[in-house]
Amino acid sequence: MLDILSNGNNPEKVDEYIGDCFDGLKCVKFVAEGPRPYKICMGMHAKDQEFVPFTSNFTFQGAVENYLCDLEAKMISTLKEILDNAKITADNWEYEKPRHIWLEDYCAQISLLTTQIMWTEETARAFDDLDGGSETAMKDYGQVTIVRINKLIERVRTDLNKDLRDKIITIITIDVHERDVILEMVEKKIVESSHFKWQSQLKFYMENKEPRDTKKVCNSKICDWSTWYNYEYVGNCGRLVITPLTDRCYITLTQALNLSMGGAPAGPAGTGKTETTKDLGRALGLQVVVFNCSDQMNYLSMSLIFMGLA
């Protein structure tokens, strides 16, 4: 903290600590022009080496506490813009670029988010078709999900670089869960979108925040809880396999948030309590801060943590 404050007018020194300030961000890429220290950057590097270019160059100016907040705003606006473009091109998967090729154009986080938005929209469309009298609508969509997963599996078996391979594996992980949900709804003959099986899934929609807004942003919903996607950059870090127990954890934690309460996952060490909570944070584009509590903890050590957070 002292190092960041004392080197506020040298963004290159502050850059060494950016990984401690953000969950997925490791450093920024400076434009090597003019005298040192460089103050203009063109994109961000994740901790797993993924690079995302900014929509326009960002300049570090003013006090360090201000320009780090501006950098966060730049990260959010960049991800929003990439998502807008990805959603527009994703609507043409069937006609122009199929999904297993399309995902090369976007960073892992946005490729996955767009895939989840499309799954929500296409499932809702299948429910509408069922209402309209098409008895096989959901079954047909189940086949579409299987074909898409098979295309991704074929790509994984080819010679790919690490970034692209990790990205495809992440999308397959979530795709398999989405396919299982669709096939279970077919098997149980669920024909109404109000059924708990569908309502209990984490769904993503593109919606206007205000009625007058021209740009849509991502909204996450599960049961009767909803929140706007937070666009925290997480990089190409992979995602956990979603099991029925994960679904139950998601519902419990989000319903607790709905009631302005907290959640306390309990159980033996190493069973994935922290990872599940972090994974829910990643799904919502939300920063998750992890610190360990023990019985040796007193009010003084708690005050230090909250002082740091503040």
Mean of all residue-level pLDDT scores: 90
- Unreliable sequence segments: none
How many distinct helices? 12
Shape field = globular
Annotation, overall tally of beta strands: 6
Radius of gyration: 21 Å
CATH superfamily of the domain at 99-199: Dynein motor heavy chain, linker domain, subdomain 4
CATH topology of the domain at 99-199: Methane Monooxygenase Hydroxylase, Chain G, domain 1
Order of helices and strands: HHHEEEHHHHHHEEEHHH
Tell me the span between the first and last alpha carbons.
13 Å
Describe the structure.
- The model has no long low-confidence stretch (mean pLDDT 90).
- Helices cover 50% and strands 13% of the residues.
- Helix 6 (108-131) runs parallel beside helix 8 (162-187).
- Among the domains are: 2-89, Dynein motor heavy chain, linker domain, subdomain 3 (Split barrel-like, Alpha-Beta Barrel), CATH 3.20.180.20; 99-199, Methane Monooxygenase Hydroxylase, Chain G, domain 1.
- With 310 residues, the protein is of the alpha+beta class.
- It is built from 12 helices and 6 strands.
- Strand 2 and strand 3 form a beta hairpin.
- It is globular.
- The strands form 2 sheets. It has a 3-stranded antiparallel beta sheet. A 3-stranded antiparallel beta sheet has the order 4-5-6.
In terms of topology, how is this protein built?
Blueprint: H1 2-6, H2 11-15, H3 18-21, E1 25-30, E2 40-46, E3 51-59, H4 64-90, H5 99-102, H6 108-131, H7 137-156, H8 162-187, H9 196-199, E4 203-208, E5 216-222, E6 225-228, H10 244-258, H11 273-283, H12 299-309
Antiparallel strand pairs: 1-2, 2-3, 4-5, 5-6
